[in-house]
Amino acid sequence: MAFPLRSPRDMVGGIMVFGRILDKIRLHAKEGLPPGYHLDVIPGSRTFDDRICCLLGVSFADLSERTLAGGTDEEVLEWCFQKGQRPDKEHVEIFNGFMMKRGWRDAAIPGLIKQREEAGLGHREDILTFFDLMDVEEGRAP
């Protein structure tokens, strides 16, 4: 069985991470998330869940409720655009670029190193971003 969350690189409507967040919401409601995974905003921390909600101008609670009401990923995204905001192409490009490089030469390096070590991958200096770490941990990359 493949890991139940898609890669953060997979896009819905051209936006990275969004599909993964929907996967997490659905999996949590159905059977719970795997150990070590979190859902929602963590006070004092900028999670990917938080960043998606900020980009789209919706609360995590509202996104969760809408996701669990059913529909395709694209329908949920369109709901976000209607309820919150529709980022223009420039903002989406900047968001995607930021997200896929998070942990590489930025303020998140200490967190990435800590999470690599917690995953038993402290020796893997080739894991440069959180996207890399997720894909390695979840069996999508060597």
Listing every helix as H and every strand as E from the N terminus to the C terminus, the arrangement reads EEHHHHHHH
**Average pLDDT value?**
94
- Kindly name the structural category: mainly alpha
The total strand number stands at 2
Low-confidence stretches: none
- Radius of gyration in whole Å, from Cα? 15 Å
Q: Report the β-strand fraction as a percent range.
A: under 5%
User: What does the largest sheet look like?
Assistant: 2 strands, antiparallel
- Tally the helices: 7
Q: So what's the overall shape?
A: globular
What is the CA–CA distance across the termini?
Answer: 17 Å
Strand order of the largest sheet: 1-2
- Helix share bin: 40-55%
Describe this structure as you would to a colleague.
The protein is 51% helix and 3% strand. It contains 7 helices and 2 strands. Strands 1-2 form a two-stranded antiparallel sheet. A hairpin with a 2-residue loop joins β1 (11-12) and β2. The two termini are 17 Å apart.
Keywords for this entry:
two-stranded antiparallel ribbon, mainly alpha, 51% helix, 142 residues
Quick structural gist:
The chain has 142 residues and is mostly helical. The chain has seven helices and two strands; from the N terminus they run ββααααααα.
Question: What order do the helices and strands come in, and which of them pair?
Answer:
Layout (H helix, E strand, L loop, with lengths): L10 E2 L2 E2 L1 H13 L17 H9 L3 H9 L4 H11 L5 H13 L7 H10 L11 H8 L5
Antiparallel strand pairs: 1-2
